[in-house]
Amino acid sequence: MKEKQTRKRLDAQTKEYILKSVLEDGAKVSDLAFKFEIGSSTIHKWIKDYRESKNQDVTRYFTSSEVDKLQAAFDKKLRDLEEENEILKKAMHIFAKNPE
What we know:
DNA binding; Arc Repressor Mutant, subunit A; mainly alpha; transposase activity
């Protein structure tokens, strides 16, 4: 009796890895299809879909709460970087005064 084949589902990270390998690194579709046990036609479809989505004008709209969250995250990152910068400035002065 022949076993029923189930479709192999790959997560988004693996799919992204395969796309980058083909498009940026020049990997062969057939090699990746064999490695991940998927059809090469599947990878070709992903590439086609990716290229079509890149060509579309993608506009992302944010709600006011999303904007507030992003702004808060950016403000925190800025404060952290400014604090880090001050620490590095102080360390630079300490090491400049005490050459070993």
